[in-house]
Amino acid sequence: SLYQSHNNNNVVSNPRVKPKQPFFIGVAGGTASGKTTVCNMIISQLRDQRVVLVNQDSFYHSLNAEKLKRVHEYNFDHPEAFDTEHMLSCMEQIKRGQAVTIPNYDFKTHQSIEPACKVNPSDIIILEGILVLHDPRVRDLMNMKIFVDTDSDVRLSRRIQRDTVERGRNIENVLDQYARFVKPSFEEFILPSKKYADIIIPRGGDNDVAIDLIVQHIHTKLGQHELCKIYPNVVVIFSTFQI
Length: 243
Ligand code: CTP
Description:
The chain has helices spanning 2-13, 35-44, 65-69, 84-95, 136-139, 152-165, 171-190, 208-230, 235-238; strands spanning 23-29, 51-55, 100-106, 111-119, 124-128, 144-149, 199-202. With 243 residues, it is an alpha/beta fold. The protein has a single domain (27-241), classed as 3-Layer(aba) Sandwich (Rossmann fold). α6 packs across α7. The protein is globular. Residues 1-13 and 227-243 have low confidence and may be disordered. The structure holds cytidine-5'-triphosphate (CTP).
């Protein structure tokens, strides 16, 4: 691929230059906090870069017939609901500049469905989901960690709206699931992961200033990267800033 030939050139001309790696951003936060909106706002301002958005939801374990019968007792907000090993290996591959196949999850049937989604190599990868800051191995791949912090009453009302309209649920089940699983798991697993964030965004997608600052930072980091490509010998001076 383009990446490999570029890397090899760099390695030959200057052995101290690290191979180019995509810039990896993690975006965590409670359910319906506005993670998707934040990601889309960031992406819309990164016009000249290749960006991929990967959703942690894609890595939910599929439920078998037995678990489907008791779906209302299943905790979708627990870290073990996700196939984290699979997510980690996909993210490692993308970080190495390789194309990967990401499963396609259906919230109505609680299963992975075909076709899966092919993700091409890119300059920026964004991984979004309630628990993307939970696993230290996944966190360690990230160059920037964001936590979207939105009041829980706002999140619950959005969640009711979304699950009844888009995910085919009835309101009693949404409220029951929220009280039994969503809220306790938020407090036990999601909120404690906030301490790993580099940036905490209050009010999610309504915070234009935060989004502007984040995009500026990404441009700065990628700009240094571009300099490294154009002037490989100058790289040594800048190498401590490399992403
Ligand atoms: N979930 C569910 N049924 C499933 C799988 C997941 O109800 N079969 C719920 C989990 O309870 C979890 C939520 O989906 O709380 C995760 O999605 P969420 O983060 O709310 O969706 P996003 O659109 O990614 O979030 P945002 O609104 O912040 O963009």
